Amino acid sequence: MSTWDRKALNFINQTSRWDKDKHISSFLAFSISLVKNLTEANVALQVELEDEETAKVKCASPVHLNDIVMNPDPIRKLLYAQGFKTIYWREIPPAKENVFKEVLPAFSSAIIIPINTTPNNSLLILGWSEPQAFDPGFLECIETMRLRLKEILLQSQQHLYFQRIAVRFSAILHTIPHALVFINNDGFSGWVNQEGAALLGLSGPGEQLPAILSDAMTQLRNKALNTADIYKEAVLLFSSPENSISNWIWQMEHKTLQVSCLPVTTQQISGRLWIFE
User: Fold this and answer.
1) I want to staple 251 with a disulfide (CB 3.0 to 4.6 A). Which of 65, 75, 225, 243 is the partner?
2) How far is CA 260 from CA 45, 196, 202, 209, in A?
3) Tell me, what's the pLDDT at 147?
């Protein structure tokens, strides 16, 4: 196995372990830094074409290059002219022709690696202060890294997208005036909103073990003035094929709760949603 084959395999192995063991938010920065170290480049960075007017440097090593803003038009023209293939500059063009002069002001060789993603295009830039030969083994190594980087970038973007969705819906659910309690059938996961945590006397909203939620709801039910009626309805609920109930009255000492229990079933989860109004 050649040196460049070993480096390509090293890159895949290390990014695969990071994928499982570390936080996704720093995954891309770690991967770009790893490419820099394995290729012995002097600079490595990501350029993201954010919109029609802005291309921004991210995940840069050295870090002082981060947040440099560039004109995306010349970059797009270069990428389209090269068919979005990896560009190898054994000698960096003169300043007038170097669309990356802001980040490659005094380097001898560079590589521009397009990573096609939507909605934005992203590319990785590597630069060396000394001239590079870019032999066939090196080219094959870079192509292997490019494919893995494309996977990493897509995975990072998907994770951040779902993270934003989770934050958004969590904020919505916590502002609903009803107490919401979800208990997953897996026996390991459950969730309660702000009103639900207050009603059940829990320390706070968010993820909770099903055993804790079930115990808190049992204690709440035992405080009701109509426990016999609640028990009868519970028997019907857990024996009914629909596994649902609504307008279920829990008469407490100082208030009346209207309780609903609905099954929640998707490909990912299966459980019950309790709503206390």
Assistant:
1) 225
2) 53, 13, 20, 21
3) 87
